Fold this protein.
Amino acid sequence: MGIMIAPQAPVIARLPYGRVESGFMRNHRGEIFFLWTHGRETIHSPVLEDGTIYPSGDFLWPDQVVNLVHPRDLGISEIRWAEPHRPA
């Protein structure tokens, strides 16, 4: 299953990556990621086509601005982690 692509999802906020505790973001190619904080680090994980989140260890620069999108605009009603990859 591939990563969710949603270039049409409206941007609700633009914030520096390091200031986001959790939320969905859209990159310049329309790919959707979920941002979440683990300890002192913010990680972005790909959101799969079915809306599940596959945790990964990817990081961005703290001052890089990201485009936040609302999950309802993606058809996501709840946060679901790809099992057995749910973070601790």
